[in-house]
């Protein structure tokens, strides 16, 4: 996770930013929360944000009744999903070639994936395509995917994959059990299809889940990764095993 400060300048922009006084106040509360401590303590900062947001929510302060307050806070979410999609359309870019490109270092790419994976794990928004995309990039490509990339990029691909499993593992496993996104529609088959090493059905399914689990173990033997990446792989494998045991134990014989 990168510790670089967040830049909210575009959200304050008169033309492209937030147009509602309520949304601007919510942004101020968020900025106050993340600046409340120099330490990256997510849980503590979340408590600060929620406490201040609840205090601001009454109509006497926000000017909105309960239903209107919730709608105002959520109404820009469609723009958020479009922004997320734009990030994935660009991917990792280190040297900007056009004005509409977004520069992502490996740390920034890991950071945004960690955030989106956590939203995915909490069933927030249409994020399933991004989960498949990153697991495919990290686990389903051939050796050329690693050996033609710099070591930092190769390490990052695996770290991002592990982050999706750690933050969204339960939903990934659930979607696999439900065979989600199993489609013959060619419009979506490329988005949900496998990489060069996986020839099974597209979408989420148990065969693919098992492949990801096996592939994580194989990467430890095939690819020279940073020691911290091996720790991430171990954590992801522990999550996978725990999820499988939890579901298996739920069946009464």
Task: Write up this protein.
InterPro entries: OpdG, Oxopyrrolidines_Biosynth-assoc. With 253 residues, the chain is mainly α. The longest helix has 27 residues, at 151-177. The protein has 2 domains: 9-74, no CATH class; 77-249, no CATH class. It starts with 8 loop residues before the first helix and ends with a helix. Helix content is 66%, strand content 0%. Helix 10 packs antiparallel against helix 12 (206-222).
What is the CA-CA span between the terminal residues? 43 Å
Order of helices and strands: HHHHHHHHHHHHH
Query: Structural class of the helix and strand makeup?
Result: mainly alpha
User: How much helicity do the residues have?
Assistant: 55-70%
Number of helices: 13
Q: Tell me the number of strands.
A: 0
Global outline: globular
Q: Please tell me the total number of domains.
A: 2
- Give the strand content: under 5%
Largest sheet: none
Q: Radius of gyration over alpha carbons? A: 20 Å
Low-pLDDT residue spans:
none
Rounded average pLDDT: 76
């Amino acid at each position: 996770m990168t510790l670089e400060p967040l830049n909210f300048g575009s959200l304050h922009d008169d033309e492209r930013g937030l147009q509602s006084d309520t949304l601007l106040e919510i942004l101020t509360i968020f900025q106050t929360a993340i600046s409340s401590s120099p330490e990256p303590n997510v849980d503590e900062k979340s408590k600060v944000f929620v406490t201040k947001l609840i205090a601001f929510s009454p109509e006497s302060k926000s000017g909105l009744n309960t239903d209107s307050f919730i709608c105002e806070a959520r109404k820009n979410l469609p723009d958020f999903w479009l922004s997320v999609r734009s990030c994935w359309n660009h991917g990792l870019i280190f040297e900007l070639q056009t004005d509409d490109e977004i520069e992502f270092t490996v740390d920034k790419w890991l950071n945004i994936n960690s955030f989106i994976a956590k939203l995915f794990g909490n069933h927030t928004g249409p994020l399933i395509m991004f989960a498949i995309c990153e697991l495919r990039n990290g686990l389903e490509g051939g050796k050329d995917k690693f050996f033609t990339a710099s070591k930092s990029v190769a390490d990052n691909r695996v770290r991002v994959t592990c982050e999706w499993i750690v933050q969204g593992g339960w939903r990934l496993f659930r979607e696999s059990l439900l065979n989600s996104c199993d489609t013959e529609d060619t419009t979506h088959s490329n988005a949900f299809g496998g990489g060069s090493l996986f020839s099974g059905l597209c979408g989420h399914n148990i065969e693919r889940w098992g492949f990801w689990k096996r592939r994580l173990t194989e990467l430890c033997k095939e690819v020279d990764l940073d020691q911290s990446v091996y720790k991430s792989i171990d954590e992801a494998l522990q999550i996978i095993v725990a999820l499988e045991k939890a579901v298996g134990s739920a069946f009464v014989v």
